[in-house]
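Researcher: Structure for this, please.
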Amino acid sequence: MAQDSLLMSALNACRAKLSAFIRGRSSIREDADDILQEVTYKLMQVEQPVENVAAWLFRAARNEMTDRARKKRELPLSALLDGDNEADFPEDELAETLFGVPETPEDEYLKALLWEELEEALAELPLAQREVFEKTELLGYSYNDLSEESGVSVQALLSRKHKAVLSLRTRLRSLYDELTAE
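Model: Predicted structure, token format:
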């Protein structure tokens, strides 16, 4: 109880600076508030004594911002409606088809076809690359969680994922070109 009280007083002492630090590096106010809340929650979960609470908070905030930047970003609807940029991002169109709700029988057929092709392409990848791709993209693992689970460094996981993405892009590009040919 005394430890919690000391942590809270240390948090309150540097909360304004921490909030300004996070807001300065985050473009969306709600994200900054979420990061501050997440860091506060993590501080409350720490089991070992923290010698320098302010340094711990700033490092935790920096790590949380890095983790969020690595995750796939959500685009506001207005960004999707501005212009006709679909040709620039074929992965976005494929993701919409794979994970969206089919509206017509043709959409449903296309979704099944794409899943089948993706599963075949994933099966062709080396096991380590396939595993990191599936867990981070399809199962929602963070790199840190996967690193802890597998004992492999985050940098090695990032490298494996990069190789998997390049391979999948190459493998699925011809299918995408066939489907979008007019």
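Researcher: Any notable elements?
Model: DSSP finds nine helices and no strands in the chain. The mean pLDDT is 79.
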